[in-house]
Amino acid sequence: MTSQRVGGVTPDAFKNCVVKLFFTCPMKGHYCLYSKSSFVLISRHPQIWIHIMFLFQQSLLSEPLSTQTTSMQVLKTLWEKTQVKGTHSFEAYIIQSMFPNKKDLDLVLMHLGEVRFFDLFGFSEEIGSWLCFMCNNPEKATVVNQDGQPLIEGKLKEKQVRWKFIKRWKTRYFTLAGNQLLFRKGKCKDDPDDCPIELTKVQSVKAVPKKRRDRGLPRAFEIFTENKTYVFKAKDERNAEEWLQCINIAVAQAKERENREATTYL
Prior knowledge:
Number of strands: 11
Shape: elongated
Distance between the termini: 58 Å
Largest sheet: 7 strands, antiparallel
Radius of gyration: 22 Å
Structural class: alpha+beta
Strand order of the largest sheet: 8-7-6-5-11-10-9
Order of helices and strands: EEHHHHHEEHHEEEEEEEH
Strand content: 15-25%
Number of domains: 2
């Protein structure tokens, strides 16, 4: 990427800095995907995110933010940790660059798209905030709660590793229902079952980052369990998004049922 000036500071000044961002869902509904966890994003452009956080804080007030407020002092401290000698102060930067430029905003949108943020979060006009997929679509929960009825089913390709440097994809038929992600040994739903993935054992479900995806292939996603990582790909981007959302919903509900049963037993 070519160097560009941002409020008098070049990106090279920040090349050794990263920021770790935690996104949560403010609604925290009954089946919220992030009621007890966060969507994590790591960026090499901390100055842009600090600027965005400043604008968010300012949007909550009708009057200009004072530099003496706690939130501004926190942002100033973060800003100073990313700076090198001779660059602008936090106050000077905010005054000279009231809004991020288009290139910075495009960079943020591209990064959010690469990590599949928009597959898991959507803006609610009614609430006026970004909510997780489950809180934005509570009606999806009724489908999962129907005993024996699959939330989603169909063909996915699973990455197979036979030798250290040779990888191939094998098509299987998958069914997401109850507390399990079932998959068949063959391509048809009438083929014998293979070992299912227990949803209560799933630690996380994430999209494969764009830089790791094979060229020309639809978007892929990974399922992390205690003992294994599964890599799947769908027929197209829309289908991959649907699987990613449905699995996240089913995992959240499976763990909630497990906790409820354990509490009842005690």
